[in-house]
Amino acid sequence: MTIYTGPVFDMARQQFRVIADHLDIPLDERERLLFPKRAVTVACPIHRDDGSVAVFHGYRVQHHLTRGPTKGGTRFSADLRIGEVAALAIWMSWKCALTNLPYGGAKGGVAVDPPSLSRHELENLSRRYMQEMIPFVGPHTDVMAPDMGTNEQVMAWFMDTYSMHQGRTVMEIVTGKPVASGGTEGRREATGRGVGFLVERACQKIGLNPSGATAVVQGFGNVGSVAMQSLAERGMRIIGVADHTACYYDPRGLNVNALLKHAAAKGVLAGFSNEVAFHPRELLAQKCDVLVPAAIERVIDADLATRLQCRILAEGANGPTTPEADEVLDQRRREVFVIPDILCNAGGVVVSYFEWVQDLQQLFWDEAEVMHRLYQVLHKAFQQVMARAEHDGVGHRTAAMAIGVERVRSAKNVRGLFP
Ligand code: GLU
User: Fold this and answer.
1) Cα of 222 from ligand 1 centre, angstroms
2) Looking at the domain that runs over 7-181, which CATH code has it been given?
3) Which CATH class is domain 190-344?
């Protein structure tokens, strides 16, 4: 019996089973590795602008605290359930271990559709959520960050709420803050730039010249938009983009600057063009060199996996590929080079770690130093995944997760089981 249910948690569980089998982990050790250490649900009442009171449900799941504090984003999304939050926390654990950050994974969020709130209501809800979480988080216990539906401003409100409670400024309580309030240079761009860097490494690996290659990007939030920019800077032609409001496809290439300008002004892609509107699901199946799913979980199922025509699948989102699709992609290993999510989107949490370190030391780095260190970490993780995949004769996801799970497992085993 578990409180963690739903398709996203089932997916994290199924993926873990594959890795546990691959690593021959004894059955009685598996639940200790998979199930989250703690989960908190909170009711967040706020005053709405019309004077009424509304209650929103908030969650925080801390997967394991064996390698240090837990770390992970806070998601504001309408259908958020605890099973999804737990899955995302588990993936954060494998991600932090793969990049060797001294963290366990966590994730949290509120079941709310952010556009349905005014700015004032969003501030009320952000502050109330953090206030409810004060007993459970701390700079050495659990450190939050942005995720879908939250941003730098929300992190600034979180930091301020926690700090007011402590009676002093505690910058290191959250990452992904604005630079003006203890954030780091490069954090906002980190995930998307990391995607660009890793795609370039993958291109080298398969002998593809990035200049003139074609790319399709699904999702136009902080990850997708910066990833697109970063691929375009490498000379790639962006032939398709989509968000939850619109989808555009033009094999001659889309105007990247115009897309960015439109999204910055309107907040969404809708209204950019009528001429190149396209079917969102079919966009993913179009012929291109690089496909970047950077939106939500489970968008690539077995059917799409058989029809993908990309050479590199760069998973900017968390969990965009179902386990059934993974089986198909495993068969197509020579045709489609997968950069698995826990590697591909790790740039965000790596620079979050840098932000936390800078806040703790009150010694701030310039952007060049941040980026240099980020690429060093990603380069090393990429090499390790490649070497492991080759050595074990497995796909990149299995290799990446095997490294992550193994590191968490060995930390647990050397520390022992108390009492
Ligand atoms: N939400 C991001 C992720 O899924 C970043 C987490 C963080 O920076 O702690 O990786």
Assistant:
1) 12
2) 3.40.50.10860
3) alpha beta
